[in-house]
Design brief:
The structure holds two protein chains of two kinds.
Chain A: H1 5-28, E1 41-47, E2 58-61, E3 64-75, E4 80-87, E5 99-104, E6 111-116, E7 128-130, E8 132-134, H2 139-164
Parallel strand pairs in A: 1-7, 2-6, 5-8
Antiparallel strand pairs in A: 1-4, 2-3, 3-4, 5-6
Chain B: H1 2-38, H2 40-50, H3 55-79, H4 86-124, H5 127-133, H6 138-176, H7 181-191, H8 194-220, H9 226-255
Classes of the chains: A alpha/beta, B mainly alpha.
Chain lengths: 165, 256
Amino acid sequence: MRPTRAIELGTGLFVLLGFAALFFLVTQITNREIGIGDSGYRLTAGFEQVGGLKPGAPVSMSGVTIGRVESISYDFTEYRAKVVLRIDGSYDRIPDDSDASIFTAGLLGGQYVGIAPGGSETFFRDGDQIEFTQSAIVLESLISKFLFSKAAEGGGSDTTEASGK
Amino acid sequence: MKQLLAELVDRAAESLSTLGRYTLFTGRLFAETPRALLRFRLVVEQVHNAGALSLVIIMLSGLFVGMVLGLQGFDLLERFGSEESLGTAAALGLVKELGPVVTALLFAGRAGTALASELGLMRATDQLTAMEMMAVDPVRRVVMPRFLGGVIAMPLLAAIFSMIGIFGAQLVGVQLMGVDQGQFWSQMRGAVELEDVMEGVIKSGVFGIACSAIAVHEGYHSAPTAEGVGRATTRTVVISSVVVLLLDYMLTAVML
C-alpha cells in the first residue's frame, strides 16, 4: 500500500494549489499594502471627539494614504481622546504646523484622519504631537444644534407675535 | 403506557450512549494524532484520496457558486446603486460562509461517504478483525490516516473553493454585468480583513475535524452487513450535514 508516484504527484499538486489559494486570499483580497509593522514613525493628536474612528483607519494627505491609526485612548490629563498615528517612513516631510481632522469617506463610509499641510519649514519627527486638530462631526449633535436654533427662532417669533397682540 | 415509557427510556439511553461513543472515539482520534503523524506516508495517501480526488467537484462547485453570487449580488446591489460593492459582497460571502460550509457539505458527500463505506466494508469482510488478530491496531493503521487526511484536506479545499468562487463572481460581475474591474477589486481589498480570511480557515478546520471524525466513526462502527454499510454511508452524510450547519452557526456567533 505504498503511495505510488502518481499519488504523490497528485497530492503535491493539491497541497500546492491549496496553499496558493490561501496565499491568494490572504494577500490579494485583503488590504495589506501599507504594512504597519515597525516601519515609519508615530505622531499623536488630541481630539475632542473621535466619532466612529477605529484603529487601522487610514491617515491621508490629499487623499493619498500615508499611514494608519494605531491606537485610540482617553487622555485624563487633557480630558480628550488621544489618537496615535503611524505614518509611513517615506512621508517624512510633513510640516510641524500641519493640522489633522477626522473626516468621513462618502455618505456611509468609514472615518479617516486627514492631514492638511501647514507652512512651517520644520517637519514632524517621531513622537511629535499635532497641535491643530478638528474633531469628527457627530451627526446627532449637528441635527440637535440645528433643531434647537430653529426652536429658538420659532419661540422668538411666537413671543413677538404675542406681544404684538 | 408502561411499555411506551420503557421504550422511551430505552431510546434516550441509546442516544446517550451513541453520543458517549462518539465523544470517546473522537478523544481517541485526538490522542493518536501525534503518533499517526509520524507515519506520514499513510497520511499523504489519504490526503490524496480526500483532497486531490475531490478537487474537480470543489472547483466546479466553487465556480458556479461564485457566478451565481455575482449574478444575485449584482441584481440586489444595483437596486441601491452600489454595484461596485459586488466584489466585497462576493468575497466576504465566500470566504466567511459559503466556502467553508459548501466545501464541508460536498466533502461529506464525496470523501465522507467514501471513507465510511470503505471502513464499513472492511468491517463487514472482517478485515479489521483480522488486523486485530495480527496485533495491528486498526485504529492506528487504518482509521487515523483517513481521519488526518480529511482534516488536512478540508481547509485547503475550502481555500480553493473561495478563490475560484471569487474569480467566478468576477467573471459574471465584471465581464457580463459591466461592474468596473478596478472598483471590484479595490473595494474588496478595502473591506476584507485578514480576520475574515482567518475566520474561514478556522471554520473549515473545525468542519474538517467534524466531518472526518463522523465518517470514520460511522464506518468503523457500522453493522458488519451489506445493509449496515449502506446505513453507515447514509448516516455519515446526514449527521455531517446537520453538524456542519449547527457548528457554522455557533462558530459565526462566537467569531463575529
